[in-house]
Amino acid sequence: MQAAKPLFDYPKYWAECFGPAPFLPMSREEMDLLGWDSCDVIIVTGDAYVDHPSFGMAIIGRLLEAQGFRVGIISQPDWQSKDDFMKLGEPNLFFGVAAGNMDSMINRYTADRKARSDDAYTPGGMAGKRPDRASMVYSQRCREAYKGVPIVLGGIEASLRRIAHYDYWQDKVRHSILMDAKADILLYGNAERAIVEVAQRLAAGQPVQAISDVRGTAFVRRDTPEGWFELDSTRIDRPGKIDKVINPYVNTQDLEVCAIEQAKGAADRGEVDDPNEAKPVELLPHPRLERDKTVIRLPSFEKVRSDAVLYAHANRVLHLETNPGNARALVQRHGDSDVWLNAPPIPLTTEEMDYVFGLPYARVPHPAYHGEKIPAYEMIRFSVNIMRGCFGGCTFCSITEHEGRIIQNRSEESILREIEEIRDKVPGFTGVISDLGGPTANMYRIACKSREIEAACRKPSCVYPGICDNLNTDHSALIQLYRDARALPGVKKILIASGLRYDLAVESPEYVRELVTHHVGGYLKIAPEHTERGPLDKMMKPGIGTFDRFKRMFDKYTKEAGKEQYLIPYFIAAHPGTTDEDMMNLALWLKRNGFRADQVQAFYPSPMATATAMYHSGRNPLRKVTYKSEGVAIVKGERQRRLHKAFLRYHDPSNWPLLREALKNLGRADLIGPGKHQLIPATQPAGEGGYQSARRKNSTPVGSKKVGGVASGRPLLTQHSGLPPRASDGSKPWSKGEEGKAQAFAKGKKKPAGKRPGAR
Asked: Per UniProt, where does [4Fe-4S] cluster bind (predicted)?
């Protein structure tokens, strides 16, 4: 993997003399107080401005400020006119536009396409403060406000819409967001490297149209430039019968390999009987496939819009080209223009991660909100992000598409400094750190044993179908971090709230012991997602036996610690590859184990996720996609989606009529009755007639750790009736009373009330 210029090695822009601002200004009055006559960069965001490293606008804004630029924030503007977009004046360099920490459509709509009643990234949780497809709308208003100012698009919403993508809400394939937003350049993934490079070039006078070689960027161009070798994606992963060409994934400098490839092509055409018996062939001149000068052409927007198989093929090729060590550029035709995607950004080093997280964040919301509660901030204000990325590759989740599969770690010193800052600066700190984590709690400092293998690998997951032999699963650095963090003066408790990859955890019993003994606040959330092999294979998740193994370890160490603690497993309804019988078997497993799902939603098809390609196409992009390839069971009809959710809430009497009918259709009427091993009763309680939605009132997902995925599609399961846990997706914060109860429970002062259902 090529080296990248460190973030802190760029020359500072002249405006560095102004120094860091207490908060990035949101008004002309604040600019005047800072002595600014203008902003160099204005960031437009769909979230309330919280100056905290869990919020994208704060990270990008503070990073640009550290480069010497004057950065202003326009937060949740009125998008009905251009007026709000002009309140800070014309930026000298560019507008940076993002929908916010979440995709605006997932933020506003449930998996059933119903509007949510709140928005966790808005003061007071008020809904309606951002438009649908906010990135596109904001970009258009910025263009109206100041026509000649470059527009740089970024954030999760733009990142996951960088090519033609299936839109669940309109049930159709849409253009790349670059085409609809009319932005000049799009930065995808974690964009620190790209935003600094783009800002420095614009400040040096380079026109935005000339910036075409920055990794992690996408832009529109007319033709493939001279000197590039263009490769049709269908030659890599053939969806149908096409001419044989040299495999671009082999070393073309190896003449023997080239000969074999050409011989195979001859065999495919029937010119020889067996490629192993092929006579030596004359090697024709062929350009060397230089990775840095090769671009893979995906099927055009028009083709993937009309052909779902080609859509699945394009999705597969895109995911094959996500490793920064070996990825090539991609290009996709939209009408008479090309959307060009450069290779993914080089991950940040530990030193750079420390630099980004060590910037002078105020760690609180902007004073303009006058202390009004912002639910998303309330959830994360005492938490610390220790790493980025995820190599799990779960098909329903968009973390890897956005942050990448290579884990980017902070140093222990940087993490401990942040804990001390929280202790000393954040109002209301009681000594409890609510989370030390990231996209996954226990991937800190876990990586491939070989940098060479890592740079060449195209596997979508390091832990499926089993843990890769080349993956170092040593948890010792994380164990030491936990020990040092809880030893800090003034820190009473360190909780782990991020999702745990339990198939990794069981490789380190010492880690499980450390976690269970010291860092579980009564409940630990993990995500088996399902019990049946069919849907699990489509999710790229381990079998339920791994969950059982982890549970035995959890129970053992909980008992040794003399504590009362419980696992909260998450499950997904209506995921591609799931049949009615699969959901029935999951419901039986839940009943046998005494679990009752409290909140349930179905699979949420987020843009660009592999499972979304399954949902749209009915094909499995985890394997070669052809017109005759494996079909995938898809749950699309409202009634069937409702049924799958009902199986997860088998204990709800309002679901019993629907379940009785389904069990009879499945030939499992034997599961209807009062017996211990039967699923639902044969009779309906008085007043419990038909099905009623179990959708909760407060259903907005909180936090960016599962944005773009199906965090909102997971149920909360409880095994006893004492303390009400938080929603599995973070969407329902505890009330003050509940939070106090939770903290007391975490400190061991109270035990949850009631007998655990299903306990023996």
From this structure: 390, 394, 397
